[in-house]
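Write out the 3D structure for:
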Amino acid sequence: MSGSNGTRRPPRPRIELVSGGVSETEAAAIVGALEQFLAETVPVPRPAHPQSRWQRAALDDGIAARQLTVGTWGQAPR
């Protein structure tokens, strides 16, 4: 993971475990699990500007072209 906690919009909340009955290892495990949960459940960012139908078709066509299994020069396709 990169250290982008200070540059996120909106900034991520600071997680702090305040309890006297757990060890440092247990507290680190709890905070780590919460950090992982926040990272895995973050909403997908929306694009800055919506794609036109032409842009979407071009991207789909480019992806489909790379997925073809074509042999190289002198070799038959698999």
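The chain is about 40% helix and 0% strand.
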